[in-house]
Specification:
Number of helices: 3
Strand content: 25-35%
Low-confidence stretches: none
Number of domains: 1
Strand order of the largest sheet: 3-2-1-9-10-11
Structural class: alpha/beta
Radius of gyration: 15 Å
Mean pLDDT: 96
CATH topology: Purple Acid Phosphatase, chain A, domain 2
Distance between the termini: 16 Å
Length: about 180
């Protein structure tokens, strides 16, 4: 199974369109949306491509491929216009005995995810990539933000395939990579 992770879209239609092109190029099976889909939030500037209605329409085209969780900027009104479930604070995905705990990162820290060695804690919220293994053997993964990168990072997404986690820029160049074997 091949998974693509995106986070912190914040209603930026232009960056989302580019990420969805990469979803098709990558030939991923599912698109995992790690929160903050439509609204930019009161602490963030309005993204250059801010068009939440158009972003909603783009996301809804892929509804049968999306597994999503709620971010701190997502609300019930977002669920009214998105045609896939996105209000859960976390979700789980299984692949060949490996558990992926999906969350936005503002409510469930890795210590509360009840994961074991070899499992993956995937989150958004911080707007910069993380790809590492902690002392308990859990892989901690953040794909960064496709619209508002922080901490001197670039717009990015994540890929899981062939027992490898990778962070790539929106042109598909690998920035970070970690084998899970």
């Amino acid at each position: 199974m091949k998974l693509m992770f995106i986070a912190d879209i914040h209603g930026d239609r232009q960056c989302l369109a580019q990420a969805l092109e990469m979803f098709q190029t990558e030939e991923a099976d599912y698109l995992l949306v790690l929160g903050d889909a439509l609204y930019h939030g009161p602490r963030n500037p309005i993204p250059g491509g801010y068009d939440p209605k158009a972003a909603c329409e783009l996301l809804n085209r892929f509804r049968d491929k999306i597994i999503a969780v709620r971010g701190n900027c997502d609300s019930e009104v977002d669920q009214m216009v998105l045609t896939y479930p996105m209000m859960g604070d976390y979700a789980m995905v299984l692949d060949q005995g490996r558990r992926f705990f999906l969350t936005h990162g503002h409510r469930y820290p890795v210590a509360q995810a009840s994961l074991g060695p070899g499992d993956v804690y995937a989150y958004g919220h911080i707007h910069y990539p993380v790809c590492e293994q902690n002392d308990e053997g859990v892989f901690v993964f953040n794909p960064g933000s496709i619209s508002m990168p922080k901490n001197q990072s670039v717009r990015s997404y994540g890929i899981y395939g062939n027992s490898t986690l990778s962070v790539k820029d929106l042109e598909g160049r690998t920035l970070l990579s970690l084998g899970l074997e």
